Structure formats: structure tokens, C-alpha cells
Amino acid sequence: MKAIQISAYGGPEVLRYVDLPEPVERPGHTLIRVTRAGVNYADTHTTENTYLTPTRLPAVPGGEVAGTTPDGRRVVALVPGGGYAELATARDDLIFDIPDGITDGQALALVLQGVTAWRLLHTSAHLAAGESVVVHAAAGGVGTVAVQLAKHYGAGRVIATASTAEKRKLAEELGADSAIEAGDDLKDRLIEANGGRPVDVVLEMVGGTVFDQSLRALAPFGRLVTFGQASRTASKAIDPVKLMAASRGVIGFWLGHCFGRPATIAEPLQELFRLTLDGVLRPVVGGEYPLSDAAGAHRAILGRGTVGKLVLDPQEAS
């Protein structure tokens, strides 16, 4: 089968389009013929070996696939690697049927990034009606869903940040009340966008200065949920005394901890499917690449030039 393999750590240049043996189905797992594979920003960490779990070489990246099972079901699945390929195996309890009316791309936009957005708001932030929510990287895979869900769940004001005018326009089209560009004065910009008041919830995956400035913009009892570090730069602002003095909270989230409890993925995913079918939620599929050009997809996502969900097509030659 055709697949993308890495045999050395590095950037997009280490992604090689190769022939590999087909995976062997084993008990408790099902073989999936992949029709689309999802690309996540975390995959760029995988190739660098800078993610939360180590990458053991050689490796086939990819944590999610859509495709068909041997008995003809259309499914979307979470996999512990191996998604960038024509065939993949997934644990039976992490395979979910795709409803009629949902495309492969939409299913991939929801199964990992969509469920992450749902969990950020419900499990980590415990969003209450009327609270203000900041969504950083609001035009990205998690951000596009988080903006819409925050509005749907009653946020009083949703403030999006994005790097270009086009991305900020998309965030507003998806329901953001205000869309701004992050900068050195981000704290002040966030407070200004919230009518002069500190904010209640921040969903943050950039790290570094964006994390630090966002934390300073929190109101008493505000919560910052961190779920990534795209800048590859750590925060310098976490001081327990200052957290206590301002009654602020910092919560970390990683969807990987849900893999051992599949119901924590299945239940939100079914709600996200229903919201999509009802026209309440619009999963954004921002780009499709042939599997052979996985490196191009990684370059695009690292260059911050993409929106929504990126997918790979194993059926398409470059």
C-alpha cells in the first residue's frame, strides 16, 4: 500500500511517500480502507518528535481517518498513528459510523478537533451562559468549531483572534462578535473587544506571549484552557501566588486522555453530527491534498496560511 513514512525527525521534508506492507487486522481492531486522512497541527510535532508522546522511528503519522470497513460501513476513526496511508487499523471502540449527509471531510473536522472544542468548553472551561470566550487561532480546525459552539451554548460574547483579515472575516461569519489580530498589546485588545471588561474564558494553543497576555486579560474566576503550543515557546507568566491573588485558573487539555474512555468521544461526536445535520454547525474543510503531497499540507499549516480542517486523499496522485 502507499503511505507516508518518516525515518528521521524534522520538518515537512522528512515525510516520504513510500510502499509499505498492508497492516494486519488483529482482535479488537478493524481494517479501514482510507478515503480521507485528517491532518492536524499536532502532526507537525510528531515529525519533529516534540509532541506529548514520543515518535518512534520509522513511523507513519496521522491520528484520524475516514473510510470504509470490510462490511461496507462508512466510518471515521481515531488511530494512534498510521493514518497517512491507504489502509489503517483502528480500535473497534474508536470507530464511529458517519451519518448520511455528513461528508468524510466534515467527519474528520469533528472527530478530533470538533470533539476537542466541545471538551474545552464543557469539560475544562465549564462555560456558563453569558460568559465571554476568547478563541485564539479562530480560523483553524479547533477554532472554527469552538467559535460556533460557544455561541450555541450561550456565550455572552465571543472574541476571535486570527492573523489575517480573511481569517478574521471567517471567524465573524461563523458567529464571533469581534475578531482581532493578536499583538504585543494583546491583553488590552482583548479587554477592549470585551467592552472594557476582563474576559471569562480563553481557549489557547499558541503559547509564549499569547498565553501570557491572555492570562493577564482574565477576570476573577476566569479560566484559561491551554491545549497546544504552536509557537514552540513556553509561558513565563505562571506564578501560583498571582493566580491566587487574581482568582484565575489555568487548565490543560489533551484529547489523548479520552482515548481510554471512548464514551467521552462518542457522546460529543454524536451531538456534533446532529448539530451539523440540523444546520447549526458548519464544519470548515479548508484544503485537500493528495496523500503523496502530505509535505505540502504540513508546509501550509506551519505557514499559517490555512483555515479549518486539512485532509489527505489517498486515491489521488500528486
Question: Could you walk me through the main structural features you see in this protein, from its secondary elements to its overall organization?
Answer:
With 318 residues, the protein is of the alpha/beta class. The protein folds into two domains: 2-98 and 284-313, Alpha-Beta Complex (Quinone Oxidoreductase, Chain A, domain 1), CATH 3.90.180.10; 113-256, NAD(P)-binding Rossmann-like Domain (Rossmann fold). 31% of the residues lie in helices and 25% in strands. The protein is built from nine helices and 15 strands. The chain has helices at residues 41-48, 104-124, 141-152, 165-173, 186-193, 208-216, 240-246, 263-277, 294-302; strands at 2-5, 16-19, 29-39, 64-68, 74-78, 87-91, 95-97, 132-135, 157-161, 178-180, 199-204, 218-226, 249-252, 285-290, 309-313. The strands form three sheets. Strands 3, 4, 5, 6, 7, 14 and 15 form a seven-stranded mixed beta sheet that branches. A six-stranded parallel beta sheet has the order 10-9-8-11-12-13, sandwiched between helices. The longest helix has 21 residues, at 104-124. The radius of gyration is 19 Å and the shape is globular. The two termini are 16 Å apart. 48% of the residues are buried.
Properties at a glance:
25% strand; 318 residues; 15 strands; 2 domains; alpha/beta; Rossmann fold; 9 helices; 7-stranded mixed β-sheet; Quinone Oxidoreductase, Chain A, domain 1; globular; 6-stranded parallel β-sheet
Molecular shape = globular
- Main beta-sheet strand count, sense and barrel state: 7 strands, mixed
Q: How many beta-strand elements? A: 15
Give the N-to-C terminal Cα separation.
16 Å
Average pLDDT: 95
